[in-house]
Amino acid sequence: MEQETILKIGGIAIVVVMAFSMLAAAFLYAPDPSDADNSGINTNPIVNNFEYNISFESNVIKELNSFRMVASTSNLNKSEIDNVISKMDMVTKVGSEFRKVDDSTWNYFAEITLKKSANLADVLNEIFALDYFTGTEKTAMKYMTLASPGELILYNQELDINRNFTFEATVLPALVSIETVPGDTIIVGGTVTLRGMDITGLELIESKNISGATQSFSVEETLPIISLGSELLFEGVAEEIDQNYYQDRIKLIDENAQLYFVPDENNTRFAGQSSVIHSGELMSLFSEISTLAFYQDAEFELSSVFVNDLNKELPLNTNTLTAQVRLGHAVGDEVNLAINLSVQRDNAQVMQAIEN
Questions:
Q1: Burial of 157: CB neighbours in 10 Å, binned 0-12, 13-18, 19+
Q2: Residues 77-104: tens digit of each pLDDT
Q3: Does 143 fall in a domain?
């Protein structure tokens, strides 16, 4: 999630945008402290409160069985909505309020506590499927604990001052994306309110999930072909090319063939798709093009890859790899492949594989 939208919660300004949400939401209340170690959070009635912006990187520890949600609705019977949600099998507590959006629409904000055995995603889907919220904008974030940052430099925007502060609690509660899981490394932002050396208010919201971000890697593997397919791909580069001529001629060879041209500085790049049975005719058609390559699809056995940059072996979501190889290979030939991967939380997906 990127930090873009300022959210205000009972006077506390928070910066956050929720991934894939249609609504930048303001949430209510404070987390249930019974599941978190808040030994370093006290009160002192003598000294004035001062609010400081806060941001740090931390590791997520565990879920706290509660979440905050916001959904727009035209039904203003808050007690009725609360009662329906409260009666759901895995819900133990509901606290909510309405905020007006326009003359016909209100936002229903709620903090919901669940039984420890509850599946949060299932409960959230059940709530969002209620008629009150059908076809409306809605989103949610859940509570999790994360490791305390220890000592930080805090900043008060109004007074334009910095101060050092040490969090005595070993873990802190935070609102995070529904997709965040224990062990993730995230960046949180928000505010902390201090009275002297005591914390009187704390609101932390995930602004970026480092572990959940998709990363790209490239690896090489030499593998034997287990089968060859019939799909033909080709690409080339020419300084001058009569696009209409080649578009017309290729349809005479294969009416289902595809051909695309892309201008590139002083050259024109082109790529196409056909069938291997037409490869000879297509080679003849493009014989005057000096920079030209033809590939066919082939299958290889591959269930995991070692990624040097991560220094670990990652499983793939399939045991069979489909790659593009040059024409002329036979089943059993060993081929050196360049494999482009998309990796998220150690789950690797092949984006492209082609013969080097």
A1: exposed
A2: 999 999 999 999 999 999 999 988 887 7
A3: yes
